[in-house]
Design goal:
29% of the residues lie in helices and 24% in strands. It is α+β, with helices and mostly antiparallel strands. The strands form 4 sheets. A 4-stranded mixed beta sheet has the order 4-5-1-11, with helices on one face. It has a 3-stranded antiparallel beta sheet with strand order 6-10-9, covered by helices on one side. Strand 7 and strand 8 form a beta hairpin. It starts with a strand and ends in a 17-residue tail after the last strand.
């Protein structure tokens, strides 16, 4: 069984490592709001380092590409060709958190979500989740219901990333049996997958839900270091492009 390292890091407000980004990534970075830059740079640097270790390349030589807001891909590699990877980030500036996982054996998807108290989770669950989920959630306390809501949301968005799907159909149609040990799919995914590994972990001090799904069983090694970084003036290297 493959051991997959799921790395979770605080976004580095110093934008350390941005020199390994490609010209396209620098252009994307320069067009971002300042608060979104740390999580983006941290995620891309972790992804490049992890993929480089799998591919025998320096981080800056990993040929990543992305069209618009679409999926990040490795140039010259088919979607069903390893290494498989997934990226997620949340928050901004000092509060930003990034996560990356890479597998040599199976498609994976990851998602991280901070339990945002401003989200009207009852309204969203009633409108977007399967009816049986809402029937369960509606009778829960706000604290427990919010936790379960974000757990289910994270798992579903992880499936979106693994199968390169659209969010809304996955929120409505991914059914998860969390009472099973380990958790399992209770119905096929929108892409027709009947079985998958489901992993989730909650970090209470950061109110952070972490979810990973995989097409085949793997061992998840959670490597997290999410102590907040010191805030500094925006240290963008290619400021003339901004």
């Amino acid at each position: 069984m493959e051991k997959v390292v799921l790395r979770v890091r605080a976004a580095d407000a110093s934008l350390s490592g941005q020199e390994v980004l490609s010209a396209a990534e620098h252009a994307r970075l320069a067009g971002m709001h300042e608060g979104a830059r740390p999580a983006f740079v941290t995620a891309r640097c972790m992804l490049r380092a992890s993929l480089g270790a799998h591919m025998g390349l320096l981080p800056g030589a990993v040929p990543l590409s992305q069209q618009g807001a679409g999926r990040v891909r490795i140039e010259g590699f088919a979607d069903d060709e390893p290494p498989f990877f997934s990226v997620s980030h949340t928050g901004a500036a000092e509060a930003g958190i990034s996560a990356v996982a890479v597998s040599q054996s199976t498609p994976i998807g990851i998602d991280i979500q901070q339990l945002d108290p401003s989200v009207d989770w009852r309204r969203v669950a009633e409108r977007r989740f399967p009816a049986e989920d809402w029937a369960l959630l509606r009778n829960m306390s706000d604290e427990i219901g919010r936790m379960l809501f974000f757990t289910l949301w994270s798992i579903r968005e992880a499936f979106v990333k693994m199968e390169d799907g659209k969010l809304m159909p996955y929120l409505r149609n991914i059914r998860v049996d969390l009472a099973a040990r380990p958790p399992k799919l209770a119905a096929p995914t929108p892409a027709g997958r009947e079985d998958a590994m489901i992993y989730f972990h909650f970090v209470p001090e950061h109110q952070l839900m972490i979810a990973l799904v995989a097409a085949q069983r793997i061992e998840v090694d959670l490597d997290r270091d999410i102590q907040p970084m010191e805030r500094r003036p925006d240290p963008l290297l290619n400021r003339l492009q901004a």
